[in-house]
């Protein structure tokens, strides 16, 4: 059997036992996934993949990157993305493809020519398995990136404290990416609420260094360009000492030790009427 004859022989072998081999493939993978996906869904996925594999061999030989295997690659990409979103591990995902090698493995009665054909099929399945892992890894990266963006959004809320006063309570490290999110949300909140006073509270920021200070100053400048004045609150004694030691200058930016002090200052600056308990102004 020549190299050119191998794809045709594989198509013949796989077509002759398509029903039994497909069922064995589904059963092998279902044991690995331990019921985390319905048997009907798994049966549909793998039988479609089996058929696409046969068609690829029939139309494109052993070149899995060729046009003949486009359907097989599309099915594998969808399988990988689905498994990644469902929380399956890379091993569980790759097994859905690589289990085909065990199912299609030759027996003692297999001829030498067919064993040679199987070895070529094994290499093809390995390549498709690696393709599956690549798509899985890319999808997981996209999911993690999206989750990180969502967490960043949740960790930088803009709160309306009073008429004309909004606050951004920051918790955790302030880096360039997060500064951009803070700017965007703060500026949008200033527009939405018509506020002209903004409090940036850093009580939850563990440390302030030169880089963090620069990020804060950029946010203040951006707010000022929108016509709002900023107050930085949460300047604890340790942070104050660090700022002095580093020689960081906040210029004419008002700083307060607590959010409450910052709110009082904002209300006085805006000539707001503060109603005390009991109805006294």
Automatic annotation (TrEMBL):
PROSITE patterns reported in the protein's UniProt record: ASP_PROT_RETROV, STAS
**Which Gene3D superfamilies does the protein's record reference?**
STAS domain
Pfam families for this protein: RsbRD_N, STAS
- The residues covered by the STAS domain are 155-266
Q: What is this protein called?
A: STAS domain-containing protein
Keyword list (alphabetical) reads: Phosphoprotein
- In what residue span(s) does the Peptidase A2 domain sit? 187-200
Q: Which organism is it from?
A: Streptomyces flavovirens
Q: Which InterPro entries match?
A: Bact_StressResp_Reg (IPR051932), Peptidase_A2_cat (IPR001995), RsbRD_N_dom (IPR025751), STAS_dom (IPR002645), STAS_dom_sf (IPR036513)
> CDD domains, alphabetically?
STAS_RsbR_RsbS_like
Known PANTHER family for this protein?
Answer: RSBT ANTAGONIST PROTEIN RSBS-RELATED, RSBT CO-ANTAGONIST PROTEIN RSBRC
């Amino acid at each position: 059997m020549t190299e050119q004859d191998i794809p045709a022989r594989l198509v013949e072998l796989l077509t002759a036992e398509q029903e039994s081999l497909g069922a064995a493939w589904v059963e092998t993978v279902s044991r690995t996934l331990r019921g985390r996906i319905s048997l009907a869904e798994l049966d549909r996925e793998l039988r479609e993949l089996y058929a696409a594999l046969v068609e690829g061999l029939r139309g494109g030989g052993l070149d899995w990157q060729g046009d003949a295997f486009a359907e097989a690659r599309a099915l594998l990409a969808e399988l990988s993305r689905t498994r990644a979103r469902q929380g399956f591990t890379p091993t569980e995902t790759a097994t859905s493809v690589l289990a085909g090698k065990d199912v299609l493995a030759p027996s003692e009665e297999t001829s030498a020519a067919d064993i040679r054909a199987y070895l070529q099929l094994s290499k093809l399945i390995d390549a498709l398995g690696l393709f599956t892992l690549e798509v899985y890894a890319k999808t997981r990266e996209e999911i993690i990136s999206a989750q990180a963006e969502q967490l960043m959004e949740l960790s930088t809320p803009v709160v309306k404290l009073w008429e004309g006063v909004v606050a951004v309570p920051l918790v955790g490290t302030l880096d360039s990416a997060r500064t951009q999110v803070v700017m965007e949300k703060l500026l949008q909140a200033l527009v939405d609420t018509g506020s002209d006073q903004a409090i940036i509270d850093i009580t939850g920021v563990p440390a302030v260094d030169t880089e963090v200070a620069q990020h804060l100053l950029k946010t203040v400048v951006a707010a000022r360009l929108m016509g709002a004045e900023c107050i930085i609150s949460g300047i604890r004694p340790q942070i104050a000492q660090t700022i002095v030691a580093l020689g960081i200058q906040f210029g004419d930016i008002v700083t307060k030790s607590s959010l409450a002090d910052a709110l009082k200052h904002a209300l006085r600056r805006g000539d707001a009427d503060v109603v005390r308990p009991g109805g006294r102004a």
